[in-house]
Amino acid sequence: MKKGGEAGEYHSKDFEWEFVKNLVENDPSLSHHLHHQHQVDSASSSSSDSKPWQDFHSRHSSGKFFKERRYLLKEFPELVSCGKNSKLLEVGCGNGSTVLPILRCSTNITVYACDCSSEALIKTKENINRAISTVDKFHSFSCDFSTSAFPNWVACHHCRHNQHCYHSGENEDTSFNEHCIGGMDFVTLIFTLSAVPKKRMPRAIKECFAVLKPGGLLLFRDYGLYDMTMLRFKPEKCIGFREYVRSDGTLSYFFCLDTVRKLFTDAGFIEVELENCCVKAVNRKKNKNMYRVWVHGKFQKPLPK
């Protein structure tokens, strides 16, 4: 019998990515997705990144908008099998749909979660308090990692300024002693990076690199190129190549594998896994196939040489 938070059967190879690529590239009505376009002033559309997400979480405050992402425990089994006193930073926690199944299934992990929306942080705490009797291994804070550094206590002074240094917590600089937790074993970026303006992505990823321990893993999942969500955007919603703005002002970018690989390796990561997850769903009411494409990745911070 499965535990309440245990992941069920998971499949991610219903079709090859080239199949949907051919469908899109041979459909004239979808040609606006194939070329560099700049229909909207992206600088003005993303000038206040946190407000659209603040409004988004206010509108969806019921908690019914997201489901627990239990499949992530199948995708990233390291989160279940990790050693004692492991630390995870969830970047862009939303309403807790990622951290909740992790907290349910792993007694060894302490989760630190951030979001640019205070509404999201409130909702995350409410959902976790309602679902789990003890939440002493969960801590949240406000941060937009695309424009601001993570707080110094997320990784100790030495780890932030010497990225090949493992530091256990002792620190000559006493201003970091009280909250120093020695860096993260894991960072999760789950449908978060796609909401960051493309030009800010390299900086955001370097922030994640800085707070990981050497040997630590960044676990990535986000929208893939030609996912059905991308194909719903009209030409006027394009603000850059593969970058779109929704009617509520939130952004969405759709990744190909090469783009993800370059972003993370340029930041200093080693690629461990990188692939498209291709899942076919059926809308029985409309008798229509829906092709979902997500990018799955694992990237490691190098160990000292």
Describe what is shown at a glance.
InterPro entries: METTL2/6/8-like (IPR026113), SAM-dependent_MTases_sf (IPR029063). This protein is of the alpha/beta class and 305 residues long.
Question: Could you describe the 3D structure shown?
Answer:
The structure is a single chain. The chain has 305 residues and is of the alpha/beta class. The protein has one domain: Rossmann fold (3-Layer(aba) Sandwich), CATH 3.40.50. The chain contains 11 helices and 10 strands. A 7-stranded mixed β-sheet has the order 3-2-1-4-5-10-9. Strand 7 and strand 8 (251-253) form a beta hairpin. Helix 3 packs across helix 7. The longest helix is centred in the middle third of the chain and has 14 residues, at 118-131. The chain starts with 16 loop residues before the first helix and ends in a 5-residue tail after the last strand. The model is unreliable at 1-10, 38-48 and 163-179 (pLDDT under 50). Residues 32-59 are annotated as: Disordered. Its EC number is 2.1.1.-. It is an enzyme of class 2 (transferase).
CATH hierarchy class name: Alpha Beta
| Uncertain parts | 1-10, 38-48, 163-179
| SSE series | HHHHHEHEHEHEHEHEEEHEE
Radius of gyration: 20 Å
CATH architecture, by name, is 3-Layer(aba) Sandwich
What general form does the structure show?
globular
Name given to the CATH homologous superfamily: Vaccinia Virus protein VP39
Counting helices, strands and paired strands, the structural category is alpha/beta
The largest β sheet comes out as: 7 strands, mixed
Q: In total, how many beta strands?
A: 10
Helix content: 25-40%
CATH topology descriptor: Rossmann fold
The count of helical stretches stands at: 11
Protein name: tRNA N(3)-methylcytidine methyltransferase
Family: Belongs to the methyltransferase superfamily. METL family.
Region (Disordered): 32-59
GO biological process, one term: methylation
